[in-house]
Specification:
Order of helices and strands: HHHHHHHHHHHHHHHHHHHH
Number of helices: 20
Structural class: mainly alpha
Largest sheet: none
CATH architecture of the largest domain: Up-down Bundle
CATH topology of the largest domain: Growth Hormone, Chain: A
Distance between the termini: 39 Å
Strand content: under 5%
CATH class of the largest domain: Mainly Alpha
Helix content: over 70%
Shape: globular
CATH superfamily of the largest domain: MFS general substrate transporter like domains
């Protein structure tokens, strides 16, 4: 038995591992809620701070961008300096940034604080499932990831509703600010308990931090997302198009440098050998495109309901409850019952189901216009939620089932980075697919047309989201028919998994799991 397996087996006999699991799940839940809670409060922030549409996109996309840019580095730092240590550092930073968001005096301070919050989350989140990976043996991880599926659903349910309640109640005249300040007691509790109950772990071999790779990743993402987000406001200047084209050159430079770094010292920021595994490469593409759908839908949905239809935050939040319940229900069923029996077909059914729900929503938005009621939205939202639940919970298992286990933080960071990068791309594309169809000057002259204009923009956005889901369905054919973790149970599955690991080439990345967190 290897030293890593011995540590895992020893941890498995320690009942404190379940307390540690509760702590890291709470941190993941805090990150999930923070993403969804902000969307519902966007119109209130716009009114209170006089925020422009560009600033609104940066309040959401800035967080996703900082999160995506730092995730791989955060995972690697955990491998090098200790996952518990980085988890506590990230949690502390996230808590401080949440306080700064809640105290923001203007839109610039709020955007800056959200960037800091995203960077801190990038230190915290990759450690969550890396800690799970080294704390629980393989035969227990299926149960643990089922719990993560439920956490995703719970975060989806409670985030918008909690955000709506906190905004509507206007506690102490603070309006939207409590949506950030609520993180303070949760973060402090996670810090105190995490120091006591989480076991420290590091990579089995010494690694080095890849600063050049980190700069190239961050630069490429900024060059792609910033012009998308600001382009419409600035009239799509030439420098924006040049920056987006230049981002492809920087990505190519990153690939070349990471190959050099692998040959030089075996410590690249991005382990390119992972992409030789067909299912992993396809899974990265699914994560990216699914993130685009999520980034587009959740922001335009909020703007449509609260600005276009004139609904209160609480009205909008309650309207989303059936969707969230459907996500949670389907997520639990997919991991526990459906994927072990039907494998990849479950994820593909999820993509088609979600696309069907979006198309039904598009039809109803056009049919009822600005006079649509919440109850009329329930059928498409439930269908969409069921489809999303079938995808989000089992996707990570499917993506990583054929990947060797080693360097847990880097692999989980890479997978979640692509999801967050897709999310940031989707939020940036809102300028094109949503705001691009709205005539600001006409609305300024005829404000009564706001409902119709936002409905048209919402329908256009849904059409794009449905098309992307169609592409996701096709990409999923490259995923394994049945993830290995679901072929057999108990110790037999674990032995098979370990055998695969021992046969893998040196320097390969792990089968550490990272859930597709929806921000």
């Amino acid at each position: 038995m290897s030293a890593h397996d011995a540590v895992t087996e020893a941890a498995a006999t320690d009942k404190r591992r379940w307390i540690a699991l509760a702590i890291v799940m709470t941190a993941a839940f805090m990150d999930l809620v923070d993403a969804t809670i902000v969307n519902i409060a966007i119109p209130s922030i716009e009114r209170d701070l006089g925020a422009s549409f560009g600033a609104i996109q940066w309040i959401t996309a800035g967080y996703a961008l900082a999160f995506a840019a730092g995730l791989i580095t955060g995972g690697r730092l955990g491998d090098i300096y200790g996952r518990k240590r980085l988890f506590l550092v990230g949690t502390a930073g996230f808590t401080i940034a949440s306080a700064l968001c809640g105290l923001a005096a203007n839109q610039e301070m709020l955007v800056g604080s959200r960037l800091l919050q995203g960077a801190a989350a990038a230190m915290m989140v990759p450690q969550v499932l890396s800690i799970v990976h080294v704390t629980f043996p393989a035969h227990e991880r299926g149960k643990v990831f089922g719990m993560f599926g439920a956490i995703i659903g719970l975060g989806a349910v409670s985030g918008p509703l909690l955000g709506a309640l906190l905004t509507q109640w206007n506690i102490a005249g603070l309006e939207w600010r409590p949506i950030f300040l609520i993180n303070l007691p949760v973060g402090v509790a996670a810090l105190i308990l995490g120091r006591r109950f989480i076991t420290e772990s590091k990579a089995p071999k010494a690694l080095r931090l890849d600063l050049v790779g980190m700069v190239l990743v961050t630069g490429a993402l900024l060059m792609l997302i910033y012009p998308l987000t600001r382009g419409r406001e600035l009239g799509w200047p030439l420098w924006g198009h040049l920056m987006m084209a230049g981002s492809l050159v920087v990505f190519a430079a990153l690939v070349a440098y990471e190959k050099y770094k692998t040959r030089k010292d075996g410590s690249p920021l991005v382990e390119l050998s992972l992409f030789k595994v067909k299912s992993f490469a396809a899974g990265i593409a699914v994560q990216l495109t699914f993130g685009v759908v999520m980034g587009i839908f959740f922001l335009v949905w909020t703007l449509y309901m609260q600005i276009g239809l004139g609904w209160t935050p609480l009205h909008a939040g309650l309207t989303g409850v059936p969707f969230s319940i459907a996500v949670s229900t389907a997520a639990g069923l997919s991991v526990q019952k459906l994927v072990p029996r039907f494998g990849r077909k479950v994820l593909q059914a999820g993509a088609l189901t979600m696309a069907a729900g979006i198309l039904l929503y598009l039809f109803e938005a056009g049919r009822y216009g600005a006079g649509i009621h919440s109850w009329q939205m329930i059928p498409p939202l439930v269908v969409m939620g069921l489809g999303m639940g079938l995808i989000v919970a089992p996707l990570t298992d499917a993506v990583l089932s054929e990947v060797p286990r080693e360097h847990a933080g880097s692999a989980s960071g890479l997978i979640n980075t692509t999801g967050q990068m897709g999310n940031a791309l989707g939020l940036g594309l809102v300028s094109v697919v949503f705001f691009g169809t709205i005539d600001d000057e006409r609305l300024a002259r005829f404000p009564a047309e706001t409902g119709a204009a936002f409905t048209d923009a919402f329908q256009n956005s849904l059409g794009w989201a449905a098309a992307v889901l169609g592409a996701i369905f096709l990409i999923m054919f490259a995923l394994p028919a049945k993830p290995k973790q679901h072929l057999e149970g108990g110790d037999d599955a674990r032995d098979a998994h370990d055998a695969d690991a021992s046969a893998a080439p040196a320097g390969s990345e792990p089968a550490a799991k990272e859930t597709a967190l929806v921000s």
